[in-house]
Design a protein that fits this description.
about 475 residues; alpha+beta; 2 domains; 4-stranded antiparallel beta sheet; elongated
Length: about 475
């Protein structure tokens, strides 16, 4: 249209014959006139709309909300960070060294609370190797072979603490025992490892990551037949845990040599050393109001009447972490992997009370279930939160504003990274993460809501479903 207008002006300027010009203007005039009218109407229309809007609609600041017909619920605490004060320990951790039956132990700050002896069985100092024993036997032999092994090929359960099989219990008395496979793994995971020489003997020094206490495991070698092998540089230590392969010939052990230290499996007839462990009991009982299926709960005076369990799913004590679970799964979580989480990327409603997906209902039975997002919001609205410690674990003390009862949520860490495999959690004693039963909104079915604490504050937010988090069961 602009080209037509310009052409018309040029023709007029050049004094084109009136007849021609008039003929051209007849063709163009209507189009030009129509375009001009359209432009004018648009401008008038915009101005008219502005005037109409300003006259007929009130300003936003003048709008009023309609009164609710029903009482409003407390605002959701989801995605709101809450700062938490730090308070003194509820129950002191206890001594870091002590004796049982005259034998010295040291506290390495381990999550299980296991205390490790400072010497091997039959040793007087930490540097002495002690003597060698076949697995499940309590006497020293001149020859170590299949034919002379009492438990080779026999179906024997874990022998820890059984004085008929456990040489630590048999020789050091009740309270001492051979460590389990899990306890040796815990030692290796939660302590630093260094191959050092002490008083002329090589060995491994384990130093606690929590309190810097340490123990020294000397090189012991092993016995096969009548021969002693690698006594100057390698250590071989029994656990109490049999190896289950259908043949009943092996048991789990820990060995090291030079820069290598790891868990393994050995034939039961070998002669290995034993480093005893003991348990130190701390009274960490918190208030409780009743039991369901043998699991304690506490009344926090909540408006809903909801009962909160006193300990985590998979634990036996208030200050124990329990197991970690991926969202919607009922077996403990051992690896961060979306492919291994059956609920990742799948549409789901709230799973509370569904035994197929709710680990609390599946494992504790009765009316136990995962708390919903709303249940955690209710807890936040009606309780105070403090960062403190109870026995061997830091965590949150959650106290009712109504009756003063409380629960303790241990800082059980989480399994989020590839380094946290085989059930080993990161950030223990500094962070905590607890699943709700509620799938996250607008998350493409990959997330669910969780209660998280780190760096002095807690929040409810959507987290990836294949993470391994703790569970604190609830019941109506």
């Amino acid at each position: 249209m602009k080209k037509l207008i310009i052409l018309a002006m040029v023709m007029a300027t050049l004094n084109v014959a009136d007849v021609v010009a008039q003929s051209f203007w007849k063709k163009v005039g209507k189009a030009v006139e129509k375009e001009a009218v359209n432009q004018i109407n648009k401008r008038i229309g915009k101005q008219s709309d502005k005037e109409k809007t300003s006259k007929t609609q009130p300003q936003k600041t003048q709008q009023t909300q309609p009164k609710p017909t029903q009482p409003q619920k407390a605002p959701s605490q989801t995605n709101k960070a809450h700062q938490v004060p730090t308070t003194a320990a509820l129950v002191p951790y206890g001594p870091t060294t002590g004796k049982v039956n005259g034998r010295q132990w040291v506290d390495l700050g381990l999550p299980s609370g296991t205390r490790w002896a400072t010497c091997n069985v039959d040793a007087v100092t930490p540097e002495q190797p002690g003597k060698h024993y076949a697995w499940g036997e309590t006497v020293v032999k001149t020859s170590y072979a299949q034919a002379t092994c009492k438990h080779y090929g026999k179906n024997v359960t874990d022998i820890s603490g059984n004085k008929a099989y456990d040489v630590a219990t048999a020789k050091w008395g009740a309270g001492w025992r051979i460590p389990t496979q899990e306890e040796f793994s815990e030692l290796a995971f939660y302590c630093t490892w260094k191959y050092v020489q002490k008083k002329g003997r090589w060995g491994v020094e384990f130093t606690s990551r929590k309190n810097n206490n340490s123990i020294f495991l000397p090189a012991t070698g092993s016995k096969d037949g009548t021969s002693l092998h690698e006594a100057s540089g390698c250590g071989m230590y029994w656990t109490s845990t049999p190896y289950k392969d259908g043949y009943n010939n092996g048991a789990h052990e820990y060995h090291f040599g030079g820069a290598l230290g790891e868990m393994g499996i050995a034939e039961r007839y070998y002669g290995y050393a034993v480093r005893p462990v003991t348990n130190y009991t701390i009274n960490t009982a918190t208030p409780s109001s009743g039991e369901i299926n043998g699991y304690k709960w506490v009344d926090l005076g909540l408006p809903s009447g909801l009962k909160w369990a006193t300990c985590n799913l998979g634990s036996k004590a208030v200050d124990q972490d329990g197991a970690h679970y991926a969202w919607g799964e009922t077996i403990p979580h051992i690896e961060k992997s979306s492919q291994k989480n059956k609920m990742y990327g799948k549409q789901s409603g709230d799973i509370a009370g569904n035994a197929q997906y709710d680990a609390a209902r599946a494992l504790w039975g009765g009316t136990w279930r995962l708390p919903t997002e709303a249940d955690f919001n209710e807890l936040i609205e009606n309780c105070t939160f403090e960062w403190t410690s109870l026995g061997r674990r830091n965590g949150l003390k959650v106290t009712s504003k109504k009756n003063g009862n409380y629960i303790f949520l241990p800082a059980s860490g989480n399994i989020r990274t590839q380094s946290a495999t085989y059930g080993r959690a990161d950030e223990i004693n500094t962070q905590l993460s607890y699943w709700t039963s509620t799938p996250a909104r607008n998350s493409y079915s990959n997330n669910a809501y969780a209660f998280n604490f780190s760096n002095g504050s807690f929040i409810i937010q959507a987290n990836t479903r294949f993470y391994g988090y703790s569970i604190r069961p609830v019941s109506e």
